[in-house]
Write a structure and sequence with these properties.
Helices cover about 50% and strands about 20% of the residues. With about 160 residues, it is α/β, with parallel strands linked by helices. It has a single domain, classed as Lumazine/riboflavin synthase (Rossmann fold). Strand 1, helix 1 and strand 2 form a beta-alpha-beta unit.
């Protein structure tokens, strides 16, 4: 029996990435962005292969992701934001709706999106997770971009059908 396996591939040559960063809770999102960009750079992604878009808040991230996806210029996208619990239901609304919309964009565009929108009880939790989450998203985007390319290449998927 010959099993075809698709495993992790972190090569970056020729890959392009779009990063959408929310400005709300900017102390946190700046750290997410810095860690993400640092990880992309350490992996070997060239500066000219990275585009960063700034949006007001987490609910604006999906629209910017969709616009980037529609350019057909990216192999993977990264969403970065921070939703910190407050005293109202607004936290649940923003956390749930932004996550669902990010997932919907990725599925509709058939493009991997690493979701780095932190949802935490307080700012300290978010700051404690920002660096690791930013790096994790960079690596997930690289791995998933390569996986999608490998599946297309090895199994002959035709996007025009």
């Amino acid at each position: 029996m010959s099993i075809q396996r698709f495993g992790p591939d972190l090569h970056v040559e020729g890959l392009r990435f779009g990063v959408v960063v929310s400005r709300f809770n900017q102390d946190i999102t700046r750290r997410l962005e810095a860690a993400c960009l640092s990880a992309l750079e350490e992996a070997g992604v060239a500066d000219h292969d990275i585009s960063v878009v700034s949006v007001p808040g987490a609910l604006e991230i999906p629209l910017a992701l969709m616009q980037l996806a529609e350019t057909l210029q990216f192999d993977g996208l990264i969403a970065l934001g921070a939703v910190v619990r407050g005293e109202t239901y607004h936290f649940e609304l923003v956390a749930n709706e932004s996550a669902a919309a990010i997932m919907k964009v990725g599925l509709e565009a058939q493009l991997p999106i690493a979701n780095g929108v932190l949802t935490t009880d307080d700012e300290a939790q978010a700051l404690a997770r920002a660096d690791e989450k930013g790096r994790d998203c960079a690596m997930a985007a690289i791995e998933m971009a390569n996986l999608m390319l490998a599946i297309d290449e090895q199994l002959g998927f035709d996007h025009e059908q």
